[in-house]
Design a protein that fits this description.
By secondary structure, this protein is mostly helical. It has 5 helices and no strands. The chain has one domain (2-77): Orthogonal Bundle (Transferase(Phosphotransferase), domain 1), CATH 1.10.510.10.
Length: 83
């Protein structure tokens, strides 16, 4: 589910949630940093989509949303669309 969150982040934002010059630096960012929706592109993305991304990218696997829960998430069941 975490990988689905990374993919959804890239599809909606156009760039990866954790980016760095080396693989080691990417891993460090994953472990130490929270996801940020800091670029202007995110203003066009519905709040429920950003919420789903955050639930998918939850670092603690026990707290992370399941596939069944993701399919029932408001972003998935409502007709909200990205502009």
């Amino acid at each position: 589910m975490w990988s689905a969150g990374v993919s959804l982040f890239i599809l909606l934002g156009g760039y990866p949630p954790y980016d760095a010059d080396t693989t080691k630096a990417v891993f460090k960012r994953i472990l130490l940093e929270e996801v940020e929706f800091d670029r202007p592109v995110w203003t066009a993305v519905p709040e429920d989509a950003r919420h789903l991304v955050l639930r998918l990218l939850e670092k603690n696997p026990k707290k992370r949303i399941t596939a069944a829960q993701a399919l029932e998430h408001p972003f998935m069941v409502n007709e909200s669309q990205v502009s």
